[in-house]
Write a structure and sequence with these properties.
By secondary structure, the protein is α/β, with parallel strands linked by helices. It has 2 domains: about 160 residues, Medium-chain alcohol dehydrogenases, catalytic domain (Quinone Oxidoreductase, Chain A, domain 1), CATH 3.90.180.10; about 140 residues, 3-Layer(aba) Sandwich (Rossmann fold). Helices cover about 30% and strands about 25% of the residues. The strands form 4 sheets. Strands 3, 5, 6, 7, 8, 17 and 18 form a 7-stranded mixed beta sheet that branches. Strand 1 and strand 2 form a beta hairpin. It is elongated and about 70 Å long.
Length: about 325
Amino acid sequence: MKQLQIFGANDLRLVEVAVPQCGADDVIVDVAACGVCGSDLGYVASGGLGAAQPMPLGHEFAGRISTVGSAVGQWQVGQAVVVNPLSTANLIGNGGSDGAFARQVRVRSAQEPGTLFALPPGLGLERAALAEPLAVAFHAVAQGAAHATTRAVVLGAGPIGLGCVIGLERVGASDIVVLDRSARRRALALELGADAVFGDCDEAFWQALAERHGGSDFYGRTLPRTELFIDCAGAGALVEAVVQRAAPRTRVVVVAVHHHATALDLTLVMAKELELRGAFSYGESFPDAIAHLAAHGERLAPYVSHRLPLSRFEAAFALAADAEQAAKVLVVPD
């Protein structure tokens, strides 16, 4: 079968590999769709993870179980599932030996809790492939303790940022503001539940926030009383701007990958009692993401901007890197 692998920096190839073999504790999943993640773009640019060469790629996927190992009693052939690619013994598409940009993928230790999630009736497999990025976004929203009265700002409207908009609307956040330079992604954010969008982190942006969320005095300076900022942009200057301009006791969640070290004014973090938290992976959010897709999948249709066959992987990755054209790009087997 064909599988997408990284052979070096910017060296991505679709190669012929053996069909995966099912161990006693494993299942084989026939992949229905796999999303292109921002981390996939990063892996390609850097040549993969560590010494693993070549590195199979693809981790945002859903499909049906086609083979069940002899020691697996919990799962059956034909079940529709979403897979946690970072679960015990796997690292699917993240430096492990398996990747989901392929027709089939092996899932090890299939009975370990939190590895496989059964899909409810009526949830299509391609829509279910969105569960992984939504789980990341929902975990970021949970890390920010967002609730029905939260006034929030999402920095960056890529797939995870758009997922955070969906997650904030899901918990009933009272005002959701999105900052992104891409007009296309700002429009998508509004479609998916944002209340307001802005293109630049300038004085007009901070003034508009103070008008929307109210002002708080900090040593003679009026600061917007936004309660939560979620960084999905990975631009250190934006996080530093938040530290400078956020009101006391604001919560800041970093879910973006930052490729360069960022200098923050820790005296302001201390003086304002800012809460700075990271959000990595999924937490316990996979079931919530699946349930939300089952209940609201059609409303989330704008989240997927393109659907391409695996044979057109180069076009899929080019689109995923183009903020003015794409949101979530799905790749399906030929």
